[in-house]
């Protein structure tokens, strides 16, 4: 089970990928703190979990397939801010373990997920990228791309 964490900005994909490759260490130092995001991540997860459960049940009923292991989700996180929720929710969606010391719920809502954390603020995007790099989990892949690219729309 894999999650692809896809960052978004208005720059070209090549420029963004070069930036992240060249600045791995400085991005790890760019992580922003958000006490409120830390406090509200559990209550938000409870609502998101119910929505995902409902979504996957509906999708499975529509396709006559009751196996979540074959489902793929694309999730757009708008105004992801510091990345606290990104790194807390995304691994839970596919039930992957995390190298984080926080307890992770191991419930699979799908077999794979593209999680698109977006934010208009450059510092916030750097914080999100830093959190992904800090996590150092093989299940979290930082694939920087521009979600405005029309070839990616479905």
Structural shape: globular
Helix content: 40-55%
Q: Ranges with pLDDT <50 over ≥5 residues?
A: 8-12, 97-106, 149-154
* Sheet with most strands: 4 strands, parallel
Give the integer mean of the pLDDT values. Answer: 71
Distance between the termini: 22 Å
The value of Rg in angstroms is 15 Å
What is the topology, as strand order, of the major beta sheet? 2-3-1-4
| Beta-strand content | 5-15%
User: What is the number of strand segments?
Assistant: 4
Whole-number total of structural domains = 1
Overall SS class: alpha/beta
| SSE pattern, N- to C-terminal | EHHHEHEHE
Number of helical elements: 5
Q: What order do the helices and strands come in, and which of them pair?
A:
Layout: E1 2-5, H1 13-22, H2 24-28, H3 35-63, E2 72-77, H4 84-94, E3 112-117, H5 122-135, E4 140-142
Parallel strand pairs: 1-3, 1-4, 2-3
Helix pairs in contact: 3-4
Overview of this protein structure:
By secondary structure, the protein is of the alpha/beta class. The protein has one domain (2-147). Helix content is 45%, strand content 12%. The protein has five helices and four strands; from the N terminus they run βαααβαβαβ. It has helices at 13-22, 24-28, 35-63, 84-94, 122-135, and strands at 2-5, 72-77, 112-117, 140-142. It has a four-stranded parallel β-sheet with strand order 2-3-1-4, covered by helices on one side. α3 runs parallel beside α4 (84-94). The protein starts with a strand and ends in a 12-residue tail after the last strand. Residues 8-12, 97-106 and 149-154 have low confidence and may be disordered. Residues 1-21 are annotated as: Disordered. Pfam families: DUF938.
